[in-house]
Write a structure and sequence with these properties.
By secondary structure, the chain is of the alpha/beta class. Helices cover about 40% and strands about 20% of the residues. The protein has 9 helices and 14 strands. Strands 4-5-6-11 form a 4-stranded parallel β-sheet, with helices on both faces. Strands 1-2-3 form a 3-stranded parallel β-sheet, sandwiched between helices. It has a 3-stranded mixed β-sheet with strand order 12-9-14. β5, α5 and β6 form a beta-alpha-beta unit. The longest helix has 22 residues. The two termini are about 25 Å apart.
Length: about 280
Amino acid sequence: MLFRSGFIGRGVTASLAAGGHEVASLDNGWRSAKAPPPGVEAIDADVRDPDAVARACAGAEIVLHLAAIQGTANFYEMPELVLDVNLRGVLNVADACATAGVRRLLFSSSSEVYGIPETFPTPESAPLVVLDPLNPRWSYGGSKIAGELIVANAARCRSFEFTILRYHNVYGPGMGWDHVIPQFIRRLELGETFTVQGDGGQMRAFCYIDDAVAATVAAALEPAAAGQILNIGNPSQEATIDELIRLLSRVSGKPIEPQYVPFEGEGTRRRLPDVSRATEVLG
């Protein structure tokens, strides 16, 4: 098996290796220089290198493609790199899977593909939208829409299985600083000015990393997940940003005085996944 050892990928590789599977992790160390989990073979390579990806996929039964440039700040600051890694990577992986005779390719997509959704909870049948190609904010969501097209059509035309997972606001240890929960914790611990983009009323449904890992492992191994596009998230953990701030203040014992600032570009007021299809397919 081939994996990315970033935030979700590291947990997935550890879980599969602990379950007795033979696991390899392809990573270029861009996110972190951590050693792979016990029992996981490390392959030092860039997903944009087609020869390296082809060698890594040779002999694999299942490939999980989790490599991507993430983080809202990166979308604005390096959209060209976001597109380069996310698109070249998925093209290389899909081609290598077909050539190597891999049975299934699992692709990590995102709630970002829904743009600014209008239906809540949002089902997988909701339209996929790039609101403004001139706004670098949508480099990531656009790359994930294209990635889904690449994976689904490569699988159909070249006769291998696929599964697509659309993750919703996964959080937990090891996720880095480019997301709202660790950003807030960092500001609180360092005593920095507690700036908040927007008015604090934005709503998100947060999914803990262990739950996302369990869903990913199940989707990789479950026969019924072949050909499925599944939302992965936890709709029972929906909260406004202000509610998140009050929770952090309560558990830390520190008062927080948020300073609200305008949004950088466009953003959605709410993300809430409909996970009924994942519940039916994965249990």
